[in-house]
Structures are given as C-alpha cells and as structure tokens.
C-alpha cells in the first residue's frame, strides 16, 4: 500500500537545472514546492577529492546506476531493441544537480534560426530542401520571445563571455562576467580562423572568470583552470551548478523540500487533470503518493518521455502514419572535427570545461546552403578542457592500438595534440523516435524507454562538409599531421559521443504535432508541465543547457501564472 | 629491448623456483623484506630503484583479491605487459602494478557489473547495440585468460607465460581479431576490455594500486591532482610538475 503524503502546490520530478529553477521561482512566489530526486544529496564538499579520472570519468561515479534502469536501443524498426547494458554514447546523470553537476559549462543560446527553422528554411530554400521524412517544425516560440529568459538564466549562472559573435541573436545585455583567459592554445585557433576570414570569439562559459554574486544572492567562485569539469563536480563552486545556485535559493524561502531516493514511476491523473505522482523509495522500496496542484516533469529527456508514456498521457507518435507527438523528433548531434599533431609539448592538461574559442561561420544558416545537400551546420570550437591520461591516447594514423609502438606514440602525442570539433545540428527524421519497450523493465517493474535512432543522409553530408572546414583550420594552425574524423555510417551506442539528447516531448504551436505549448504546459493536461531538452523540436549546433535554462524560466513563469489563474496559458 | 627483459625475467623466475604470481610486481618479497613500494616494483622490472624516496608502509604488501590461481594471474601479467611493455621511457604493466590493479577491480563493482543492466533476456544483437553477454567482467576475464593459456598450448604446446613475446602477440592479435571462440562472449570484446583495463591501471591514480610511483604519469607528463593552474594557464612554455596523487589530501 502506498502512503499518501500531504498535498503540495508544485511537485517536480528530478532536481537538476530545470527542477531547481522551477523550485526557486515558484517558492519565491510563495508556492509550496517538493522536489523528488531519485539520487542523493550532494554539495561542493563532496567534490574535494574529485580529481580522480578513473572514479569519475571512467567509472562514471556521478552517473545513473544502469542496474536499476536503462533504455533499450535499435538502429531501425526492423531490429529488436536491446538494453544499453553499459553507459557509452551518452552519460545520464543522477543525484542533486543532475547533468548540471557534471556538465562542462559551455553555455549557449540556440540561434534565432533554430526556433523558426521550418519557416525560415522553406522561405529561403523552398519547401523541398529536405525530403519529407525530415520532420522539421518550428518551436512555437521565437528567439526574441525567449530572449528575456536566456538573459535571466545567464544572470543566475553568471556566464562569462563576450558579445563578439556576428551570427547569434541580439542580446538585451552583455554577459554578467568577462570571458575566461585566452590561453596560448586558444590564440592558435584565433589566429588560424581569423586568417581564414572567420570570426572567432570566446566560448560562453559557466566556469566563471571571476567571483560573482547572482541576483538570488548566491555566490559563485572564480575558476582555477584545474582541468576537471565534465563528468566531475567542481570542488571550488566555480562551475555554476544547480546545487550552488537555484537549489539553495529555493531552500532559503522555506517553501521548498527535496526528497531524495525518490524514484517517480507514474504521473497520476483523473479526467483531464493530473493529481500528483507515485514514487518508490530506492532504498526501502516503500511506495508513496505525492499529491500536487501542479506536476512538473524536470528529469532528463529520456525519463520525462518515459513517464508520460507509462502514465498514458498524450498520443504516442506512430512512425507509420506520422500521427501522434509523444516520442517524436528524438534528435542527437553529430561530431565533425579534426585532430592535429604538433612537435612541441603543450599544457593540454590545464584547462576548464568551457575554456574555448568558437566560430559560428558554419552554424545555423550563417552560410548559404543553396548548393549543399543539407541544412544547418555546427559551431566549430577548440576547447582546452583538460586532457586526462586514461582517456587521452592520441595516435597518428597507422599506429597500432597496443604494444610498444602504441605506448611510445600515445605518450609522445598526449601533450602534442589538439582537436578542433564541431557540434553538428541534428535534424529530426520520421524513423528516429522514442517509445516504450515491450520486453525489458526497470528494477521497479516499469517498462524501459526504447530508442530507435540512426544517422541520416543529412547528418552524413553535414559531417563531411564540416569536417573539411575543421581540417582546413587545423592545417592553418600549423599541425604537422592533420586527421579529419572518419565519415559517419550507422549510429553506434558504444563509444562516447555526446550527452546532448533531445526531443520526444517537443514544444510547438499545434497540439497535433507537439506535446507541450510554449509555456511547456501539456496540451492535454493543463496542470502538467514538461521541461527540458526533450522540448527541442530538433537539435541545434550548440550545447543544450543555455536553452534548457531559458525554457525552465519560461516554464516557471507558466506554472506561477497557472497557479493564480488556471487554464491554458496559450 | 623490452622483449629481452621479459625473457630474462621469466628465466629468473624459473631458476628461482618462486611462483610468478608471488614475485612479479614485487608484492610478497617486497613486503617480507619491508622495502618501499618503489623499490618493490622497480627492481624486478629492471628500472632504477628508489630515486625519490617512498616511505615504508604496509600498503607495500601486495596480494590478490580476485584471482585464486597464480597461473591465471601470471597470464594476466604477461598479457598486460605485452599491451603496455616496459621500454626506454619507463616501466610496463608489471612494473606499474597493473595486474594487481586489474585483480582488485575484478573483485569489486567493476568485476561484478554492479552498475550495469544485467536483466535477461540476453540475446545477441548488432554491434551498434553494444555488449549483450550475460557474463560479468570478472567471469569474462577468467575465461579469457584460460583461453589464452589454451591457445598457447594449442598453437605452441607451451604455457602462455613461457612463450616468446612474438608468440604472445600472435595470441593477443587472434583475440583482437575475434578469431578465438569463447563461451557466451566474444574474444574481441574481451581483448578490448583487457586493453582498456590495462590503460586504466597505468594511468589511474595510484590509490587504486596501479600507476606505481606515478611513473605512468611521469612518462606522460600528466601532473595528477593539482588544485589550480590559474598561475600557469597563460604560460607560452610547457610546464613540468612533480605529480601528486589525490590520496595526498588525506595524509
């Protein structure tokens, strides 16, 4: 028998960036908020001995325990989906702060083009630029409408940057803190890209260039360039994370509680409203019901979609007919790039997760696609994130992967290699989607989410074109040997690629083709909100967090409005 | 040449009459005579001993937590040494303590697959779907090492540990190319796991039992745990640091 808890105004499922932002904003307005987090409490003190590559980066200390829950995967509908038994392609987070704890801190606003991609592509290149199986759609919101929320997230996070990119959207204010230090390695990239006629600028960073107090009164420290960001927590409180900003801001109101080890298994509903959530204590397996006026799904892309599916809320996407929206438009990213081998040793082990320089000359619609067989592109960056010795064993072409020659070459090149990489935008495709698995279950008996995904011709064309650009840049940087990344074939879930999964619970202007409206309010259940990168109708050429943060502030505004007035917000 | 040293070390073991598992890597002898960790590992692998003064600790006693059979452990020692051999840059797998690192990992959550999804049904899929075996890592390692020994007998009528370096490489390559039959698993996956575990043991912080004396970090120019590079990050020149273990924070 489940124990029913006292009703609250708002319950969030998961406490990372989105859950923390919803909590802080709603609690400041006097709403009683409970956050259900299936992982554990953690704070800056827990990261004092975090400079341990094996534990955190290789053995995934901060990541989801797959023995309890994973997803199943297949490349296409004619295959049998099988469980992702080990982490690989992407790293699902767990615990207070979620992926906002182990992110690198590269903080972007998606481009104006992203939000109106269908209309703008059709207007410029014609409606048949991409074949019909690419299910492109506008997001139901414009960059200008979202700009105040971007601004708010950047001020909360204290983002360090410079407004020198001619290709991104207009900003209402400059970055809260100046850009990070331009290291000699970044200067190499700056010089090369300038020589090629591009416009390099410092990457917007949540590893702060200087100490900062945000509008909520929370302190963020200055980055020490220690080189342990992604897959790690920051021992200085210098990489902006939910647990040092929005979570303490929410707690300070007295209106916020977090319940840990609380794994939500169902969104409960009655008629056209949700009534709360059912969760299981991950330690005792006791079952609880948390009633709430408003439910906000704030877990990762995968789990937000899964909870709607197992709770039978919304219409499942059907790839045969194209009808239904839940699970539709799952997208990922593709990673064009080039590696360069140099003669001199470089300080590659120093750095920070978002220490980098970028060009957007080949991102979005910054360049003409009339004669190209793809749309969109990639931000191209060189980052100095801190190379670590287990994962970084760079090998020139034709070097064996073990033995004496391997050892010599990997040691020689560890400090003599740089990479230029693109984050390639990923266009949605009819056959790439999320659904529920019919065979495999999690430890609580709930079906696993099933991912059907493969790279597309658009992806392959984009990858090839952008890799050529990256090779040119690396050659201009003076590398003695330059190796472009191999062309992509089928998506493989084994090697790490990127934790930029998107879609499945997409936002839009039409209930027939989207799951939530532009307040991230569910079309069918007005007191249910779903927020995160799952709302992206396609994936852009940047890291997702900045846009997720903006959507979370937009969503918080929606929850507050709804709590006062009720009804549909659009 | 590393090969020559390997051979001579094996010859030493044979003539000394001490089981390979007990000596190579230096644990038991070193512990008995109370030598420090550095000397333990440097001496049998032919490196220079004691150049920066490690301290005498009980940690210098090494033993096995997972393997029971010294022959299996000896195969692991030689196989990892072939993957990451001693050379003029510095120690190889044995000198770095990598076989002990792997043994300890196999005894814990890594070996037990405690954080992996291990629910049935198990069924083979496409390569892009990743590993689908029912075997835990520690089961896979035991079977894989036994298969290596069988391959040595089958191909050369000798124990794996007594093979010439080139013969060991031939067997490792057969695993890498998935040309050896395994039960409920595949040889290529085992080889990749073994290779990665060897690199993990080389470059993980020495608190895990490999990377003895931080020698792998020294070879590679990685400083280990340092709190800050804010004063060096803008340096035009390569900066060399004496490495530090994250374990230093507790001492």
Can you offer a commentary on this structure?
- The complex is a heterodimer of chains A (about 575) and B (about 250).
- Chain A has about 575 residues and is α/β, with parallel strands linked by helices.
- Helix content of chain A is about 25%, strand content about 20%.
- Chain A has twelve helices and 20 strands.
- In chain A, strands 1, 2, 3, 9, 10, 11, 12 and 20 form an eight-stranded mixed beta sheet that branches.
- In chain A, helix 1 (about 15-30) links the parallel strand 2 and strand 3 (about 35).
- In chain A, helix 1 packs parallel to helix 8 (about 245-250) and helix 6 (about 145-155) crosses helix 12.
- Chain A starts with a strand and ends in a 5-residue tail after the last helix.
- With about 250 residues, chain B is mostly helical.
- Chain B has twelve helices and no strands.
- Chain B has helices at about 1-15, 20-25, 25-35, 35-45, 70-85, 95, 100-105, 110, 135-155, 165-175, 185-205, 215-220.
- In chain B, helix 7 packs across helix 11 (about 185-205) and helix 9 (about 135-155) packs across helix 11.
- Chain B is globular, with a radius of gyration of 19 Å.
- The relative contact order of chain B is 0.12.
- Residues about 1-60 of chain B have low confidence and may be disordered.
- The chains are: A alpha/beta (about 575), B mainly alpha (about 250).
Q: Estimate the helix proportion of chain A, in percent.
A: 10-25%
> What does the average pLDDT of chain B come to?
83
- Relative helix content of chain B: 40-55%
Tell me the greatest interface.
A-B, 65 and 64 residues
SSE pattern of chain B: HHHHHHHHHHHH
End-to-end Cα distance of chain B, whole Å, is: 38 Å
Q: What is the 3D shape of chain B?
A: globular
Low-pLDDT windows of residues of chain B: 1-58
Percent of residues of chain B in beta strands? under 5%
Low-confidence stretches of chain A: none
> What is the rounded distance between the termini of chain A?
39 Å
Helix count of chain B equals: 12
Structural class of chain A: alpha/beta
Question: What is the radius of gyration of chain A computed over CA atoms, rounded to a whole number of angstroms?
Answer: 23 Å
């Amino acid at each position: 028998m489940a124990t029913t808890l006292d009703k609250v105004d708002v319950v969030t499922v998961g406490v990372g960036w989105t859950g923390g932002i919803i909590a802080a904003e709603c609690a400041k307005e006097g709403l009683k908020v409970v956050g259900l987090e299936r992982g554990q409490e953690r704070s800056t003190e827990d990261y004092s001995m975090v400079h341990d590559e094996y534990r955190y980066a290789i053995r995934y200390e901060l990541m989801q325990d797959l023995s309890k829950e994973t997803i199943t995967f297949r490349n296409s509908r004619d295959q049998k989906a099988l469980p992702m038994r080990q982490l690989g392609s992407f790293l699902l987070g767990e615990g207070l702060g979620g992926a906002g704890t182990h992110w690198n801190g590269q903080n972007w606003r998606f481009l104006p083009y992203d939000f109106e991609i269908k209309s703008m592509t059709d207007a410029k290149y014609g409606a048949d630029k991409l074949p019909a199986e690419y299910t492109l759609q506008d997001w139901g919101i414009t960059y200008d409408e979202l700009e105040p929320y971007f601004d708010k997230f950047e001020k909360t996070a204290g983002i360090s940057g410079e407004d020198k990119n001619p290709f991104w959207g207009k900003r209402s204010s400059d970055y809260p803190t100046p850009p990070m230090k331009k290291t000699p390695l970044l200067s190499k990239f700056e010089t090369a890209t300038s020589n090629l006629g591009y416009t390099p600028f410092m990457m917007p960073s949540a590893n702060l260039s200087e100490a900062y107090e945000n509008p909520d009164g929370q302190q963020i420290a200055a980055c020490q360039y220690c080189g342990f960001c992604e897959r790690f927590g920051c021992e200085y409180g210098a990489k902006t994370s939910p647990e040092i900003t929005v979570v303490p801001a929410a707690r300070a109101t007295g209106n916020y509680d977090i319940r840990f080890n609380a794994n939500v298994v169902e969104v409960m509903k009655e008629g056209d409203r949700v009534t709360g959530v059912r969760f299981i204590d991950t330690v005792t397996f006791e079952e609880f019901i948390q009633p709430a006026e408003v439910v906000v799904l704030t877990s990762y892309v995968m789990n937000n979609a899964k909870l709607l599916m197992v709770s039978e809320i919304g219409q499942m996407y059907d790839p045969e007919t194209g009808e239904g929206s839940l699970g539709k438009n799952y997208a990922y990213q593709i990673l064009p790039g080039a590696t360069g081998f140099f003669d001199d040793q470089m300080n590659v082990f120093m750095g920070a997760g978002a220490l980098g320089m970028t060009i957007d000359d080949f991102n979005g619609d910054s360049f003409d696609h009339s004669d190209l067989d793809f749309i969109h592109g990639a931000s191209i960056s060189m980052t100095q994130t801190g190379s670590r010795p287990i994962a970084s064993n760079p090998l020139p072409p034709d070097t064996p992967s073990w033995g004496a020659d391997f050892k010599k070459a990997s040691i020689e090149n560890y400090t003599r290699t740089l990479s230029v990489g693109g984050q390639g935008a990923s266009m949605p495709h009819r056959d790439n989607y999320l659904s529920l698995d019919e065979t495999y279950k999690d430890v609580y008996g709930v079906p696993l989410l099933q991912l059907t995904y493969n790279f597309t011709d658009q992806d392959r064309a984009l990858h090839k074109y952008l890799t050529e650009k990256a090779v040119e840049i690396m050659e201009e940087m003076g590398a003695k040997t330059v190796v472009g990344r191999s062309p992509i074939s089928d998506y493989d879930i084994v090697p790490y690629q990127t934790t930029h999964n998107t879609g499945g619970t997409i936002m839009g202007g039409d209930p027939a083709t989207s799951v939530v409206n532009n307040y991230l309010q569910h079309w069918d259940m007005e007191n249910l909100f779903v927020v995160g990168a799952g709302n992206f109708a396609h994936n852009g050429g940047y890291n997702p967090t900045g846009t997720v943060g903006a959507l979370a502030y937009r969503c918080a505004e929606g929850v507050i409005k709804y709590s006062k007035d009720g009804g549909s917000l659009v | 040449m590393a090969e020559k040293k390997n051979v001579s070390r094996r010859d030493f073991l044979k003539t000394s009459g001490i089981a390979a598992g007990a000596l190579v890597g230096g644990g038991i002898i070193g512990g008995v005579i109370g030598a420090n960790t550095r000397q333990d590992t440097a001496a049998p692998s032919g490196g220079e001993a004691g150049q920066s003064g490690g301290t005498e600790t009980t940690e210098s006693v090494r033993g096995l937590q997972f393997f029971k059979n010294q022959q299996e452990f000896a195969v692991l020692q030689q196989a990892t040494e072939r993957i990451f051999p001693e050379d003029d840059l510095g120690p190889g797998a044995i000198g770095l303590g990598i076989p002990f690192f792997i043994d300890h990992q196999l005894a814990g959550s890594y070996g037990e697959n405690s954080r992996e999804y291990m629910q049935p049904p198990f069924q083979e899929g496409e390569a892009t779907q990743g590993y689908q075996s029912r075997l835990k890592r520690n089961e896979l390692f035991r079977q894989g090492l036994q298969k290596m020994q069988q391959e040595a007998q089958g191909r050369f009528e000798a124990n794996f540990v007594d093979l010439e370096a080139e013969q060991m490489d031939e067997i490792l390559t057969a695993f890498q190319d998935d040309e050896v039959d395994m039960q409920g698993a595949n040889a290529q996956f085992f080889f990749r796991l073994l290779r990665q575990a060897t690199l993990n043991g080389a470059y993980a912080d020495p608190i895990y039992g490999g990377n003895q004396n931080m020698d792998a970090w020294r070879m590679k120019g990685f400083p280990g745990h340092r709190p800050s590079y804010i004063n060096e990050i803008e340096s035009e020149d390569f900066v060399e640091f004496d490495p530090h273990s994250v374990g230093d924070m507790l001492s």
